[in-house]
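User: quick one - fold this with adenine bound?
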Amino acid sequence: MNWHASVLTLFPEMFPGPLGHSLAGKALRESRWALDAIDIRGFATDRHRSVDDTPCGGGAGMVLRPDVVDAAVGAALAAGPDRPAVVLTPRGTPLDQSTVRRLAEGAGVVVLCGRFEGIDQRVIEARNLQEISIGDYVLSGGEPAAMVLLDACVRLLPGVMGAADSAVEESFSGGLLEYPHYTRPAEWNGRAVPPVLLSGHHAEIARWRRAEAERITRERRPDLWARLHPNAAEAGAMDGRPAAA
Ligand code: ADE
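Assistant: Sure. Structure tokens for the protein plus adenine:
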């Protein structure tokens, strides 16, 4: 069986969307993974086909009903029971590459896209839904977040990634952000390619790239840098600057 993603959404027509193009789309056509988008509204039971209701305790917005969500998750799991179920929500655990890797190594994933103000907590607990966020900002729904999650997983599936992408993956796995890239022309609008990259000295090029990756990581992501060098603050020497007094 290939890797199977089921997306539970009120907007199934949004899928595959961007996932039908580029690397993930090619892999989908090659059956390296399978995708079904399931309409949550199809599991409504009343004559108005309602999927949400007002929040207990009052307040703005609507909450997805537990019975409807439970039926939708149950239907998805019937088609592939050995898959973790996740829900995309800004209050979830931040998505990172290790979570992506773990999901890509499994049988697939059931992805519930949040809408409205939220989802009834009881079905999150009853179905053991893992809450995942793609970042500290609020989207109007979980669908774009589901696409981000699936894209990140699919590129890791066997036979999907090219050699160039694999190298990027390895470099990120080292915990550093990528070094800058250049191509021809050697000079463009008065800006030169760093001479070392044209020198042919492979060891020096590797050293320059490593130093640039470290500089960029330090400047942009002190959190990642601190994880790599937990004692750097006391040692003060990792970036060549003296420690603060
Ligand atoms: N739904 C709305 N905002 C989101 C976010 N930041 N991550 C995941 N799902 C979301």
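One thing worth noting: The chain has two domains: 3-154, 170-239.
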